[in-house]
Amino acid sequence: MPRLLDGLKRSDKIIKIWLTTNGTLMPDETLLPLMRDPRVCVTISDYDALSSRKAELIDMFERLGIAYNVAECASGGWIDFGDMHERGRSWDETCKIYKTCRACSSCNPMIGDKLFPCARVARMDDLGLRKAESCEYAALEADPERTRRNVEKLLAADGIPCCDFCDSWSGARIPAALQ
Ligand code: SF4
Question: Is residue 166 in contact with ligand 1, taking CB distance under 6 Å?
């Protein structure tokens, strides 16, 4: 982790580095000086009593001047995005879901030479459960210009077919630690 964080900080292409903890472990001592950086911010996912070291972490971050925030996670719990059957929605409905889905605005996973708009489409593709269509990822190519065009095309998409294989945020809530 210290090597990874150090490497990320050396890149001037990286604007912000978010580290997430569930508040159960204290960071390694070697990590602390690297975390005291305007580009680094720690999010403590707060699961009430389960986040047993939250108070210690907050105290440490305050003392050392490390930026952090606390995200309340206990009441909302986790969301069941459903199984992988095709729901049969129209393309318009599917696009509407895509545009309102926070999963695709907050996390863009990269697996191998593909950048995906959300973890669900990435994971399905990676596990071989549903092959991602070419419109559902940006191919990361050796030529940076081509890669840039691929990413721009993905970002401009109105929707992705995979959203019709997903319940999105309407799925059932599952209490934290039971997911
Ligand atoms: S597949 Fe599901 S999680 Fe991914 S963007 Fe579509 S609705 Fe959101």
Answer: yes
